[in-house]
């Protein structure tokens, strides 16, 4: 009998592996809130475009298995590529509009890939709860919409961004940074902090906030802006005035590595 049929609750944490504290915080929540904690580890090829970092994406399965065991994860699901995408696979899930903004604008097709694999994982694992980090804010918006639109019987739970001591959001990709790049990468969180301070002090022009962030990033030689956004956290559409809730988000290439970060502000 399946765990679900026997009345046990299942929590799922979808990941691409190379675990850090961000992943572990999701696993701990899944562990404590459910009878069965499932973690999936799959570097999903269809969410990468040609020329992106699929081949360079950091991997260390043995270390990940150890960390999952330490946290008493019940099932670590590590499918083969062909298990998820057999040769004849040709379906994509498109969460329209929400997928095209922010990261979707510079990575066309990315969120189709994400929505498709997460839908498959929901079908395979049939979780009661699924856990996602707010570091990937847009992903949480896209997945919530998809789960609602497609009547998935799963509660989407989001947890705060876990950061390094100097503020850099933890990411598997941080391991790709050289020492100089690692130091330059601080500009993401620092520019968000400056933006938050300005908003707290009364700045309401979204353009001024975008400019402040751009100016801080521009001081780093190793950093190149992909986008800087001030948007509605519900629609992800750019706003001109910061009022109520706003999502301040950015993507920056540090060397060849693309990093993202965001902060939710309330006025
Ligand atoms: P990834 O393996 O990068 O695809 O991430 C798997 C899950 O961990 C996603 O829900 C991410 O949002 C989440 N995650 C990644 N980095 C962090 C972080 N620094 N803090 C919290 N959650 C994170």
Q: Which ligands are bound?
A: adenosine monophosphate
Mean pLDDT, as a whole number?
97
- The portion of residues forming beta strands comes to 15-25%
Q: Could you state the order of secondary-structure elements as H and E?
A: EHEHEHHHEHEHHHEEE
Shape type: globular
Residues in helices, as a percent range: 25-40%
Instruction: Give the strand line-up of the largest sheet.
Output: 3-2-1-4-5
Distance between the termini: 51 Å
* Structural class designation: alpha/beta
Number of separate helices: 9
Indicate the low-confidence ranges by residue numbers: none
Annotation, overall tally of beta strands: 8
| Main sheet summary | 5 strands, parallel
Radius of gyration in whole Å, from Cα? Answer: 19 Å
What labels would you give this structure?
single chain, 267 residues, alpha/beta, 5-stranded parallel beta sheet, 3-stranded antiparallel beta sheet, 8 strands, globular, binds adenosine monophosphate
Quickly describe the structure:
The protein has 9 helices and 8 strands. The chain is an alpha/beta fold and 267 residues long.
What does this 3D model show about the protein?
The chain is α/β, with parallel strands linked by helices. Helix content is 35%, strand content 20%. The strands form 2 sheets. It has a 5-stranded parallel beta sheet with strand order 3-2-1-4-5, sandwiched between helices. Strands 6-7-8 form a 3-stranded antiparallel beta sheet. Helix 5 crosses helix 6 and helix 8 runs antiparallel to helix 9. The model has no long low-confidence stretch (mean pLDDT 97). Bound molecules: adenosine monophosphate (AMP). Adenosine monophosphate is lined by residues 15-16, 22-23, 25-26, 132-133, 135-136, 159, 161-162, 169-172.
């Amino acid at each position: 009998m399946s765990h679900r049929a026997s009345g046990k609750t299942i929590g799922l944490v979808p990941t691409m592996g190379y675990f850090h504290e961000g992943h572990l915080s999701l696993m701990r929540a899944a562990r404590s809130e459910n009878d069965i904690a499932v973690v999936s580890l799959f570097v999903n090829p269809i969410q990468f475009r040609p020329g992106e970092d699929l081949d360079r994406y950091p991997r260390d399965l043995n270390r990940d298995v150890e960390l999952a065991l330490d946290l008493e994860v019940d099932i670590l699901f590590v499918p083969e590529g062909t298990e998820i995408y057999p040769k004849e696979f040709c379906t994509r899930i498109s969460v329209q509009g929400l997928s095209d903004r922010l990261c979707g604008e510079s990575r066309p097709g990315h969120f189709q890939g994400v929505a498709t694999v997460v839908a498959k994982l929901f079908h395979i694992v049939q979780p009661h709860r699924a856990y996602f980090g707010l570091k990937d804010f847009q992903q949480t918006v896209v997945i919530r919409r998809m789960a609602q639109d497609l009547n998935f019987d799963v509660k989407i739970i989001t947890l705060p961004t876990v950061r390094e001591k100097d503020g850099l959001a933890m990411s598997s990709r941080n391991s790709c940074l050289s020492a100089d790049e690692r130091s330059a990468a601080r500009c993401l969180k620092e520019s968000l902090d400056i933006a938050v301070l300005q908003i707290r002090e009364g700045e309401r022009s979204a353009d001024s906030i975008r400019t402040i962030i751009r100016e801080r990033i521009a001081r780093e030689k190793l950093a190149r802006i992909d986008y800087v956004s001030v948007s509605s956290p519900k629609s992800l559409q750019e706003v001109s005035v910061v009022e109520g809730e706003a999502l301040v988000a950015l993507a920056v290439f540090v060397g060849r590595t693309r990093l993202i970060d965001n902060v939710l502000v309330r006025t």
